[in-house]
Amino acid sequence: ADAPKELKLDWAYWNPVSLVIKDQKLIEKEFEKDGVNVRWVQSAGSNKALEFLNAGSLDIGSSAGSAALLGKIHGNPIKSVYVYSRPEWTALVTRPDTGIKSVADLKGKSVAVTRGTDPHIFLIRALADHGLTEKDVKFVLLQHADGRAALSRGDVDAWAGLDPILASAELEENAVLFFRKPDYNTWGVLNVREDFAARHPDTVKRVIKVYEQGRQWALANPDKLVALLATQAKIPEAVARKQLTERTELTHNAIGRPQYDTILAAGEALKQAGVVDAKVDVAGTLDALIDPSFSSGLAGT
Amino acid sequence: MSTTDTLIAPPPAARTPLSRRWLARLPLGLVLPVVLALGWELAVQSGLADGRLVAPPSRILATLWALSEGFELWRHVQATLARVAVGFLLGVVAGTLAGALTGYSPLARRILDPSLQGLRAVPSIAWVPLFILWFGIFEESKIALIAVGVFFPVYLGVLGAIVSIDRKIIEVGRVARLSGAGLFRRILLPAILPAYLLSLRSGLGLGWMFVVAAEFMGASEGLGYLLLDGQQLGKPDQIVAAIIAFAVLGKLTDGLLAGASAPLLAWQDTYRKP
Amino acid sequence: MSTTDTLIAPPPAARTPLSRRWLARLPLGLVLPVVLALGWELAVQSGLADGRLVAPPSRILATLWALSEGFELWRHVQATLARVAVGFLLGVVAGTLAGALTGYSPLARRILDPSLQGLRAVPSIAWVPLFILWFGIFEESKIALIAVGVFFPVYLGVLGAIVSIDRKIIEVGRVARLSGAGLFRRILLPAILPAYLLSLRSGLGLGWMFVVAAEFMGASEGLGYLLLDGQQLGKPDQIVAAIIAFAVLGKLTDGLLAGASAPLLAWQDTYRKP
Amino acid sequence: MLHIDHINKTYPNGAEALRGVDLALEAGRIVAIVGGSGCGKSTLLRLAAGLDQPSSGAIRVDGEAITAPHPAVGIVFQEPRLLPWLTIAQNIGFYIADLPAAERRERTDWALARIGLAAYGPRWPRELSGGQAQRVAIARSLVAHPKVLLLDEPFSALDAFTRASLQDALLDLWQAQRPTLVIVTHDVQEAVALSNRVVVMQPEPGRIHSVLDFSLPYPRDRLADAFVRAERQVLQALDSSLAQPGRSPRPRREAPLQDPPLPALLPSHLIAV
Amino acid sequence: MLHIDHINKTYPNGAEALRGVDLALEAGRIVAIVGGSGCGKSTLLRLAAGLDQPSSGAIRVDGEAITAPHPAVGIVFQEPRLLPWLTIAQNIGFYIADLPAAERRERTDWALARIGLAAYGPRWPRELSGGQAQRVAIARSLVAHPKVLLLDEPFSALDAFTRASLQDALLDLWQAQRPTLVIVTHDVQEAVALSNRVVVMQPEPGRIHSVLDFSLPYPRDRLADAFVRAERQVLQALDSSLAQPGRSPRPRREAPLQDPPLPALLPSHLIAV
Ligand SMILES: Nc1ncnc2c1ncn2[C@@H]1O[C@H](COP(=O)(O)OP(=O)(O)OP(=O)(O)O)[C@@H](O)[C@H]1O
Ligand SMILES: Nc1ncnc2c1ncn2[C@@H]1O[C@H](COP(=O)(O)OP(=O)(O)OP(=O)(O)O)[C@@H](O)[C@H]1O
Ligand SMILES: [Mg+2]
Ligand SMILES: [Mg+2]
């Protein structure tokens, strides 16, 4: 099939591979000979990337797996075709002086959280694991950075944090990460608009090929990756290092069963929390969302 | 030369035929939104347009209806309305006092005005982290933020109107040897009243706008929350429903304000009442 | 009775002593921000306050300095300035035309005004999804959104000022048998000029405010972007630096607008010039 | 030229400003209107200028009913109503904006000189004295050469000499172009000096009390017997119009004035001459 | 009482409104100021009222230099300047807001009746005729019982009879309280009828041309020889003040006026009486 005239991609601080690709102009090189005009758009968060996809302002965009599911549930015509990372970007945090040691201690306490994001799902699942529900704690809905401020001011007792703010709170304020669970993070996935995938399947495959290139480079050059993120996002290197080396696995690529399971569990948790309507068929939606065909042939690591 | 519906046309005299008087009572303001809504509904129904991103009115009504069952919409409206009301009052008082002070005293103007004019340009969202720091994340900070939004148009309106009052009118006050609060209450305020009421309406509009930023700060109810929730979770119907709620409430409160202030302007010698 | 620095005090006559004239030239507007900045710096330096969330001026200056090395700050400022400029122009033109139309024709007012007054209350962020849909995420939509912010204060200002013009003045225009554009250009516009310029300044302020929402739409440069980036990545210094940039640019552009329009108001018979 | 047919005008607040007023003004006539304060003179002029609508009755210019200002009818308002954002020269040129710039310029310059304000062209209205502003307002309407010119107390703020000069200017215009002039005035001598017909109005409700015609030769000698007689006639009509039954009593001195002991006059050296 | 010492006033635009004006007004005196249009009369009154500052010279009330309005000095402006947001009654009570409500009420009612507008208390200023507004403006200043009252062409918009009635009201006040009255007027007869001293000013620059003192007994007989002589004296001074060398030539008729052929008079049945 023919390549499109223009290719609209996103990049984001929480998608390190995209930083590499954009920095090294890998996409531009790949599509140079086809005369494709490449347009980079920054996504400030999963919801932004999904919004842009929904409006046709992006062809291919990155998001957390659970966010992609939510988008799909609300009618966003996308497919998830590739995994660029397995991040552990969220954890439950408290101040040293609150005495909170485990999730069970949260009973009756207030927790800052951003609704609908991975930390939100993470919090709900963590509570469920410890026999608690949303009603046992007081949710305070705040944007990520504001949650951190509220925590350090003492307005809330805990915070469902997100990197890199999480890492910097950890480094600068000795915030205590009292609950971590990598499995409850829902992957970083690449989404493509359905009509774009149908019209330009080759292009999607070639983008995934480039992503693989970038991912391999990132794996080979961890220090350079840290430096890249630190300069691009203007965050301290220590924060970037903590985020990338301690909490991000870049060793996955093909989308399939593991992603399906994690996202399904997240979807059920969201349903329980009332973020997703009880009538929604999560599994069915997920079937429509995840399309392994574009990345099935890829070799691991 | 000019049609009968223009400002310069003769004012409605006794000759106005019945049909026109009947027309005058029609809520013509509803025509535009209703026509647009029907048009969009038809376009979507007939498949001419895709209603996925902007839902057709039927679906928005369904969303509103779903939200208002269990009084959820009402809860959001109430929360926001209460915040806007208190924030508006505070903002108006502060804006009026500050505008009066700087309008009255050139020294105060030269000291305060440049800073205030600068802060006027700071977007609502930019205040969020600072307000969290200063006032915490509870009701105080939300109300304070809304008050900030209201403050600036009122301040600018009062100041600007005071410095352009006709000298002749001020002199009457000076002959009565008014100064300070007396001059403000008996001359400056009434003289700027039309402009002042306009600035209140402008401020009210900004109060509504600042609600979203305010409800960024740890709200779990309110229209701003509804909007943000819709955006974050990608629920277009809810977004449009929130927009419509904002527009309806904005129009209602503005109409209330304009209506309540109309008697205060009965003395105006304008060509035709608004 | 009244101090010499009040509005009702005698205008500066030839008797003004030298020291006062010297005072008159002092940029007093800088006093307040400088005092606040120094106070904060001292408080943080002496350990009285915690400068982590609101950085002391020295650190903010360092941030600004770091941003302006490699001209990055300049790039952001330029991007935003360009958007605000174009959006402001569009908003002013649209607001003036709409305000003139509804101010002039009661029929147009009854049809259009209620809808516009409603939309006025819709927060900037609420427009984002719709504007993405209508205009995409590139420059058009950003400019359009800023224009929307500018539109409403200008519209309200023009409409409100037109309907409260003194009948006596309009009659002079009627005797000259002006109508439509002629009446607007030769009577209504100059008569509302002070209020109009005020509404332009109000609109400009809103233009700056809408920048953030505009740069929500997939920007990677601009002051709004800088602010959002700082908030999302939790960089308080950058947030405060962006706020300061907004305030400084807001004040500069407002001052420019006020200064440029001052000669247009030379005819005003006010007690003392602003 | 201008026909006013059985006009009533009641303001929205219920004030009956005019009741059953008929008046016909042929081309080239000079009519003066005199009457007590509040007897509807300004209202009548505003109606004739098409600025307001009568409650009943009609006004026609050359047979054509008018509901809006008519190109042939000019008016000088009771207040100067200069446009504050225009200079004096621009104000005078306001009604003739359609003319070629050169002609406008010429007429404006002529008018500025004629009202004795030749050097005032570039000033703002706020920089004028009361009488100067009134003169500018008159000039503004004169330069438009209207076929009917309505003047509402045009000379009230002028001293006797400036007033005479402007009366002359008005009569010059009349002689050159023969417009119909309607002059509202409180100065009975002025009414007789300028007009061939004096309409005396009476208040509450405003209506016409009597119409007095004179045909004295121009230029009129204010000391001539006929002139003084005409003057006295108008004054008497005015007096009787204000003493009409049904009107609230004309306010009168409460007690006869006693000659008060005057303070000693100031020594003249205290007065600069 | 009021001393004006060698005052100069030049406006920011360079207009020299007053040059070297000296004037002393003892308590209880009635002074009239007459002069050509633009000769600085209003400027002088504004300075005396403390509303503007002289460029040089000083104004003292009872020895106290004034730089702001003085409680003992009231002024009636050349325009009515009613506050549009107050009713007529409220406007009249504006300067006496400090008085107890009952007394304010009483004075307001008295004034409304005295100016013949008893029923107009609750109206808005925009609903008044020009002369009615002027009467309200006079009443507003009268009720404050100032020790010095400056009146700038107070009766210019009134017909002869209403004018006489208000002159009476002013003289009544004077007789009861003996304020110093300064009346600017263009009506020479009025100046002579009211005052014991007439100050004639002359324009460009504004200054005092001459000061004429009379001591005619009150009530004054306008037909008495002494009155007519005084009147003529003032008129002559006025004429000579306007013909001063150095002044731009007084505008005069351009050509001698020809008696024009008058149109035939209207048949009287067309005119309603
Ligand atoms: N605000 C002002 N700025 C500049 N010049 C002014 C101002 N006010 C008055 N003048 C000028 O000063 C002179 C005196 O004005 P003033 O109003 O005192 O005259 P006046 O004697 O009251 O005249 P009139 O009888 O026409 O009211 C005039 O030539 C006028 O043009
Ligand atoms: N806009 C208005 N609304 C209500 N009543 C009005 C209005 N204008 C004038 N009147 C009333 O109508 C009557 C006639 O007013 P008009 O102005 O015609 O009088 P006039 O003869 O011009 O008096 P003057 O000599 O005082 O100017 C007055 O009693 C006045 O109070
Ligand atoms: Mg009148
Ligand atoms: Mg004057």
TrEMBL record, chains B, C:
Keywords: Cell membrane, Membrane, Transmembrane, Transmembrane helix, Transport. It is found in: Cell membrane. GO terms for cellular component: plasma membrane. Residues 77-258 form the ABC transmembrane type-1 domain. It comes from the Bacteria. GO terms for biological process: alkanesulfonate transmembrane transport; cellular response to sulfur starvation. It is a multi-pass membrane protein. The chain crosses the membrane at residues 22-40, 84-107, 119-137, 143-163, 183-200, 206-228, 240-267. The keyword Cell membrane applies. It holds the Pfam family BPD_transp_1. Belongs to the binding-protein-dependent transport system permease family. This is Alkanesulfonates transport system permease protein. It comes from Orrella dioscoreae.
UniProtKB/TrEMBL annotation, chains D, E:
SUPFAM superfamilies: P-loop containing nucleoside triphosphate hydrolases. Keywords: ATP-binding, Cell membrane, Membrane, Nucleotide-binding, Transport. Residues 239-273 are annotated as: Disordered. The keyword 4Fe-4S does not apply. Residues 2-228 form the ABC transporter domain. One of its GO terms (molecular function) is ATP hydrolysis activity. PANTHER family: ALIPHATIC SULFONATES IMPORT ATP-BINDING PROTEIN SSUB 2, TAURINE IMPORT ATP-BINDING PROTEIN-RELATED. Belongs to the ABC transporter superfamily. This is Alkanesulfonates ABC transporter ATP-binding protein / Sulfonate ABC transporter, ATP-binding subunit SsuB. It comes from Orrella dioscoreae. The lineage of its organism: Bacteria, Pseudomonadati, Pseudomonadota, Betaproteobacteria, Burkholderiales.
